[in-house]
Amino acid sequence: MAGLASCALVGSCAATAQATPSNGVTGVIISRTTIGDTDYILREITIAPGGSTGWHYHDGTLYAVLRQGELSHYGADCAIDQVGGAGTAFVERAGLGNVHLERNLGTEAQILDVLYVLPAGSPLSEDAPNPGCAFD
Questions:
Q1: Residues 101-128, mean pLDDT to the nearest whole number
Q2: What is the distance between the alpha carbons of residues 40 and 56, in angstroms, rounded to a whole number?
Q3: Sign of CA dihedral 123, 121, 73, 110
Q4: Surface-to-core class of residue 35, CB atoms within 10 Å of its CB (0-12 exposed, 13-18 middle, 19+ buried)
């Protein structure tokens, strides 16, 4: 899903590892509030046909619903772990152990509504290197 940092934030990356940038992704924050030590951010993310979020993870849990398009969500094992059309809901778990990527393999834009539940002050996502998949 979306707003990405650098491999240095990932922790112990190999010296040659490179973060994978997003391609064709835009996002608009609809709402943002902090309660205690948690940020709640509602964001609309659009991924153009052929676009990708780049490999990344989140410091908190995300709850997403695909409003338009076809979902192609991949885990670090390079396999699709979520597919579906409009109305498909899914959860992205927190932490470096949950590196993932969303690709738009379809012909229309993907539009996702995403609720980020993050530790206060955390970035929306943290870039990660490609875990060894034949695609970015």
A1: 97
A2: 19
A3: negative
A4: exposed
Predicted pLDDT at 95: 97
Residues with Cβ within 8 Å of residue 8, at least 6 apart in sequence: none
The type of residue at 96 is: L
Concatenated DSSP letters for 92-136? E--SGGG-EEEB--SSS-EEEEEEEEEETT--S-EE-B--S-S--
Query: Whats the size of the chain, residue-wise?
Result: 136
Provide the CATH number for the domain formed by 20-127 in this structure.
Answer: 2.60.120.10
Average pLDDT, the chain: 89
This prediction's pTM: 0.84
17 burial via Cβ count (<10 Å: 0-12, 13-18, 19+): middle
Is the distance from CB of 68 to CB of 99 less than 8 angstroms? no
Judged against a pLDDT cut of 80, whether residue 78 lies above it is answered with: yes
